[in-house]
Structures are given as structure tokens and as C-alpha cells.
Amino acid sequence: MLLIDCPWCGKRPELEFAYGGQAHLARPPRPAELSDQQWAEYLYVRSNARGLHAERWRHTRGCGRFFNALRDTTTDHFSATYKIGESPPK
To answer: What's the pTM?
Structure first.
């Protein structure tokens, strides 16, 4: 079983977590001013790089908090987890 390291609760089984999408996306400051195409791109277009990827996760069956993780999409290996608002580890 895959273990994910919650920044608050420590290592827990993957069944306790929910994937929350790509990390570090900033909401547009004035969404009403965006065209339909720009809004659709913000909502649906995401980076899908092979390799190390910054993602948002939620510890749904634990503390309930969101956090960010660096995960290799080819191996499912989590190289780091960190709290929302913190910079990714180098």
C-alpha cells in the first residue's frame, strides 16, 4: 500500500487521501472580465507532464486539511509534501 506523508498527521495509507488537482494555480483576479475561452482554460487546462509534478491533496479521512505534494507521475513516488502557502522543497 502506498503511504502518503501528511504534513500534520504523518505517514498514512493512501485510502485516507483524495487528489485535489494541480497545485499552485492562482484564481484570476477579475474572472467576470475573462472571455469564455479564457475561463474554460483556467478551469480545465492543466499541465500533464511526465515526471515530477506539484499536486494538491486532501487528508479526507484524517485531519481534513489540504496540502501540496511533489509526486512522480511515472512511478507514483511522493518525493515531498508541504503545507499550502509554502514553497515547494528543492
So the answer is: 0.87
